[in-house]
Each structure stands twice: as structure tokens, then as C-alpha cells.
Amino acid sequence: MDAKFDDLTPKQIVEKLDIYIIGQKKAKKSVAIALRNRTRRLKLSEDIREEIAPKNILMIGPTGVGKTEIARRLAKLCNAPFLKIEATKYTEVGYVGRDVESMVRDLTAVGYSMVKLEMQEAMKVNAQDKVEEALLDLLLPGSGKKKDSQKSANQAMLPLTIFGTDAAKAVEIDGTQPEPAAPHGEDMAVTREKFRQWLKEGKLEEKQVEVTVQKQQKMPAMEIFAGGNMEDIESTMQNITSMLTGARTKKKTVTVKEAREILLEEHLDKMIDPDKVADEARSRVEQMGIIFIDEIDKIAVSGSRGGGQDVSREGVQRDILPIVEGSTVNTKYGMVDTTHILFIAAGAFNLSKPSDLIPELQGRFPLRVELESLNADDFKKILLEPKNALTKQYAELLGTENVKIEFTDDAIERMSFIAADVNSKVENIGARRLHTIMETLLEDLSFEADERAGETVVITSEYVDQRLKNISQDQDLSKYIL
């Protein structure tokens, strides 16, 4: 695990979330404690560690208040396998669609990729030397291999070529050419060293070479088989195809710069033990994995139960239950135990209530956090304070056209008021309303930006009222509903 993350206290985790997310202290606090408990648990003795189950969280609140954003920032903050899924993607076993176990398989794939990248990064230095030798072999075919005397005698009659050109004449560096090199003996070694030096200095980056790459054959996902393990079916079909057709390769003409990336990836793949990666990935998923289930309210059954779609929704809940409780799921990387995976569910619950979930599933999410609706003060902070604040984003975008925009305090106040006012009178879409406000406000300026290069545009409250008069005066709000 990332030592820096392991050392973060709950208070520090909240501070990091505050950089991007305004308000919602309760939700941040609950998430921070849950994450900290993950690292605390790993420091316990094994017998106690196995008894401590994760405290799954159910976040309740209207759309656009930060539920999904908290999940996104958690994924970047913690060095652990993280998967965000939507409950509406899954169907009950027997219906057409994805089975719920696929979320565990997807999480394991995320963990595998994470571990593989870490191992590749650790081996990259060792692979660089092999890549350099491979590039020299492409630039000077045969120069790195020992030939018997007969072959050397035969090859002495042939010019060294790069795409049919004398190698000594093919590379021109700073207006000078290397002396003609013989394809054997000490002269070849000298030429190879010259090319090595040029490679290190980056003088051969645009020269073209021919590399052999493996063709990637991917079968389309066959989700028509309802209820089955589609990953296993797809893998089996790919194996059958490979057996029938054999490994296929193709030659590709690329620059040295591109060839370096291709060869580096190839060598790193050869250096890594897939079984070792899979073992570490499974362990990391089981001990530190996090699954964020969004839109869980969409599978809650409100009112009378039974009939049609409601049966499928309740079936999805029943299928999710054993995974959240703890079960073993078969993945292409081995069996994964879900007992200690942390589940965070979220939903607006506009048309249903958390109590509409089946009781067993409710019990598996003991921590419930209600996120608050955003007001004008929150919108003002969202426009100014986060690291990725909307005002900063639009200033950077228009800055690429050499147009500078400045927002006055009055303009920020006015936009915040309008956003809160619209949300109170039509559908409340939270902070997403600000995207509509900003796009409408800067629509003409963005359209004419190339003609206004060099200008500084000051956005005042009068400017805001003029551009948003349909909202502030006419109250014709229907066009602003997303």
C-alpha cells in the first residue's frame, strides 16, 4: 500500500476531500473513518483481523450534492482497487443483462492492472537496457549477434541496410555521416556504439524502423447469455480462436520513438510473472477493495411489490446481498472472497425510501449519511474555492484563445443566487446547475473568442443579469432543466 495514504488520519483525509468538495462534512467524516479503519485492520493480528467486517455506508441525498464526486476523489486518494458502478446496469439471474458478480470480476481486473503497472514501473530501469539493444538490432540488423565464419564471409558481400539503404549513409547527424562500416569485426562494434550514443542523445528519434507486433484479437462481449459468467465464455472463445488460427503477428513501420514504447511494453510483459501479479491483486482486492454502488435507489421497490420490472429490481437486491455479506466469486485471476470489501452505496431516493430496500440489504449498510442540499453560499464556494473550480476552468479554456476573463464578487454572488433560485423552483439538480449557468453566461464569449484575442473581459453582476435575463426576469425556466 501507499505509505503516504496509510499515514493519513481521518482529519487529513477530510482535508484532502475539502480541496475538491464543498460542504458535506458528515459524509466526508464517515468515509474518512471507514478508510482509516481499513488500514487499522491490517495492522491487527490475523485472528482478530478476520473478525472485523467493514462498516458499509449508504449515502442519501439529492443529485448534484457530491455523492459521486466523493467516490471519484476517493479513487484517486487511496491506493486501493476501486470500482464505481451503477446498480441499474445489473439484472436478476435469468434476465438479459449483467449479473451482479461481474462487479467483483471488474474490481479484480482493476486490481490486476494496478499491481501490474506498479511492478512494471519497478522494472522499467532494467528493461531500458534491453530495449536499447533491441533498437540497435533494428537499426543495425545482425550487429549484436555472433556469426560463424562462413556467414560472416557471405554477409561481407552485402551492404548493411535500413530499408534498403547503406546503414552508414542512412543516418545523417548534424550534417555529417559516419564512416562506412563493415558488417563484422571491430568496425561493426564501433558503428554500433556510435548508434548507441546517438540513441541516448535522441538524434535518431524520427528514423523509421520495422517492428513485429502481436495482433490483438478481441472477441465482442456476448452478453446475450443471461445469467452466465460472460467473462469465462469470452475467454474460452478467445482461447479456441487462438488454437485454431495460431499466434498472429504483423510488421509495422514506426519511428524509433514509437518503437521504443512498443518494445518497452513487450519486454515488461515478458519480465512480469502473471501468477505473481494475480496473487497480489486478489489479496489487495480482498483486503482493501472498495466498490461504490451508485443509483441504488433505482432498484428499490416502492409501494406495492410484485409484477414486471419490480420483480427484477428486488431480484437484483437479492443477488447483491450475498456479495455484500461475503461470498466467493470466481474470476479469471482466481477465487475472490468479498467478505472484507468495503461497499459504499448512494442514491437520491426521490421516488423511494431506504426502507424500500429489502431488510437484509438494509442491514448490510449500517452507516447512513444524509447529504445536504446546496444553498447560495455553497454555490459561491463551489465557484471559487475548489482546486478545479468552474471559474478557473473557464478562465483557462478562454485563455487558450488569449482572452482573459475576470469575475467580480458581485457577479459570483449573482450567479450563486440564480442557481439556488432555479433549483428551488424547478428540478433540484444541485451543483450541476452551475454548469448550465456558466455555459449560458459565457456562450457568446466562447463563440467569439478567436475574434477577441488580447481582450480582458470583466464579468459583472450587470453582465450576468443581461446574459441570464430569461432566468432572473422572465422566470422562463423550462429550457434550463437538464
How does this model look, in words?
By secondary structure, this protein is of the alpha/beta class. Among the domains are: 207 residues, Rossmann fold, CATH 3.40.50.300; 105 residues, Helicase, Ruva Protein, domain 3 (Orthogonal Bundle), CATH 1.10.8.60. The protein contains 21 helices and 13 strands. About 11% of the residues have low confidence.
- Could you name the CATH class of the domain at 3-114 and 276-370? Alpha Beta
CATH superfamily of the domain at 3-114 and 276-370: P-loop containing nucleotide triphosphate hydrolases
Low-confidence stretches: 146-170, 173-183, 217-228, 304-308
Strand order of the largest sheet: 2-7-10-1-11
Binned, the helix content reads 40-55%
Q: Mean of the pLDDT scores?
A: 78
Describe the global form: flat
Structural class by sheet pairing and helices: alpha/beta
Give me the CATH fold name of the domain at 3-114 and 276-370: Rossmann fold
Strand portion, in percent? 5-15%
Instruction: State the end-to-end CA separation.
Output: 41 Å
DSSP helix count? 21
Could you give a short description of this structure?
With 482 residues, the chain is an alpha/beta fold.
Task: Give a topology summary.
Layout (H helix, E strand, L loop, with lengths): L2 H4 L3 H9 L6 H18 L3 H4 L7 E4 L6 H11 L4 E5 L15 H38 L9 H7 L5 E2 L2 E2 H4 L14 H17 L6 E7 L15 H16 L3 E7 H16 L2 H15 L1 E5 L14 H17 L2 E4 L2 E4 L4 E6 L11 H5 L3 E4 L5 H9 L5 H10 L4 E4 L1 H17 L6 H10 L1 H5 L8 E4 L1 H7 L1 H4 L10
Parallel strand pairs: 1-10, 1-11, 2-7, 7-10, 12-13
Antiparallel strand pairs: 3-4, 5-6, 8-9
Helix pairs in contact: 2-3, 6-9, 6-11, 6-12, 15-17, 17-18, 17-20
